Amino acid sequence: MPSDDFFVASFEKLQRMGHVGANPNPATGGRLRPRTTRFPTGKDGRRLFKPRKVENFNSILGREIKKQGWQKPLAAGWIMGQWPSVVGHDIAAHTKIEMVKGSTLFITCDSTAWATNLRLMQRRILQTIAAMIGPNIITQLKIFGPKPPSWRKGRLHVKGRGPRDTYG
């Protein structure tokens, strides 16, 4: 183990070379310069903090929706919720969206006449949907007439022709 003399000699050598000494800044004669503030201060001298840039909720939510790939399901849900504003209240009163599967919208109508009229307006409805939620989200409409009631009661039933087109 080196002796204390070795450490003292090393310190003195470094001091002569100018690496170690009592004067930390020879240009100022040993006086330390006052620290300059690099941030704004108030009238009382306390530091003023910069206001943070806070993102609004809409941009955060939009970024998360894109990241997760939820655009199509959310757009389809929006169509189901806003159906009266898409087709109008008169048509919406006689139609019901059953489901969205892929890019196909399944619609059930009150009567076969409403189903026929809706099929004739199909192109305009698809254009309106594309304008509201974007292209290639809903590309096809499947339009059905009313569902007849089931005549089956209970677990057991007899095969037969049953009622024909008596409804709608």
Task: Describe the protein.
The chain has 168 residues and is an alpha+beta fold. It has a domain at 64-144: GMP Synthetase, Chain A, domain 3 (2-Layer Sandwich). It is built from seven helices and three strands, in the order H-H-H-H-H-E-E-H-H-E. It has helices spanning 4-17, 57-68, 71-81, 83-87, 89-94, 112-120, 122-133; strands at 95-101, 104-109, 140-144. The chain has a three-stranded mixed sheet with strand order 1-2-3. A hairpin with a 2-residue loop joins strand 1 and strand 2. The radius of gyration is 40 Å and the shape is elongated. The termini are far apart.
Features:
7 helices; elongated; alpha+beta; GMP Synthetase, Chain A, domain 3; three-stranded mixed sheet; 3 strands; DciA-like; DciA family protein; 11% strand; 168 residues
